[in-house]
Amino acid sequence: MTESDRAAEEPTGETSADGAGTRRTSAFGDPDASLIEQMGGVRGLVFSSIPILTFVPVNGIWGLTVAMWSALGVAVAMLAWSLVRRDNPQPAVSGFIGVAICVFIAWRTGSAKGYFLYGIITQAVYGGAFALSALARWPLVGVIWGFLDGKGMAWRRDPHARRWYAFATWIWAGLFAIRAVLQYALYLNDEVNWLGAARIAMGWPLAVLAFVATVWAVRRASVHEREAEEPRLDTPS
After folding, report:
1. Left (φ > 0), alpha (ψ -120 to 50) or beta: where does 139 sit?
2. How far apart are CA 169 and CA 163, in angstroms?
3. What's the gap between Cα 181 and its chain centre?
4. To 10 degrees, the CA torsion angle through 203, 209, 215, 217?
5. What is the C-alpha separation between 184 and 145, in angstroms, rounded?
6. What is the DSSP secondary structure assignment for residue 110, as one 8-state letter?
7. SS3 call for 133
């Protein structure tokens, strides 16, 4: 067998131009990918933090109108920078849309705390969705990982794997619930500065912890899935 033949038989995790590629791969749970890379990279962290770091102090010094335009301007600048550099624009696009929605709510409510209302509602919806999926025995972590890993819903046949995915799903449900409840309490008390601090402090730091636990749970679930497949692979046809 020639070197090119061997290379053709080895899985690369990439998809060919005609769409008939090998199994889909993901950085999620990949031991060779750093934790920051698995969570979207440093750019995702920057794009989610800078508008808030701009809005809160500018609002305190120059007022709501200047703060809204400043946050929106920063989001536009980050999007333009990504396009000029020809980077993956997804973090910047998502950040711009999120900031635009937050600014619109702040403008409509005439209050700086309105800037944070969209995030609070989003966290509550995410928490409810993850909790309901776990209660319905369709934990979202398993659904998402099945899609990313290319195995679909095969994991549902193994009760041990299903429990590990449910465990990870409840972690995220709890995280979203904690964010929503604590930030809503600050919202009711008009604590704009503390809302900004909470959004950043309860954003990536807590998400990193939840992500570490999720990767560990997914790997445990994968072990049970492989063990469940081994008898079928060993059975003679």
Report:
1. beta
2. 10
3. 19
4. -120
5. 31
6. T
7. helix
User: Which residues are CB-contacts of 159 (< 8 A; sequence separation ≥ 6)?
Assistant: none
Picking from 77, 101, 91, the residue whose alpha carbon sits closest to that of residue 46 is 91
Whether pTM > 0.85 for this model: the answer is: no
Assigned token pair, 205: 């730091």
| pLDDT at residue 148 in the model | 84
Residues 6+ apart with CB under 8 A from 58: 66, 67, 70, 71
The string of DSSP letters for 76-102 reads: HHHHHHHHHHT---HHHHHHHHHHHHH
Helix (H, G, I), strand (E, B) or coil at 42: helix
State whether residue 27 is helix, strand or coil.
coil
The whole-angstrom separation of Cα 126 and Cα 105 is: 20
What token pair was written down for 56? 């809160």
The 10s digit of each residue's pLDDT in 22-42 is: 444 444 444 444 444 544 555
Neighbours of 4 (CB within 10 A): 8
Angle between helices 41-62 and 204-234 (to 10 degrees): 160
DSSP annotation of 20: -
CA distances to 124, 146, 148 from 28, rounded to whole Å, are 24, 11, 8
Whose CA is closest to 82, among 119, 130, 35, 47?
A: 47
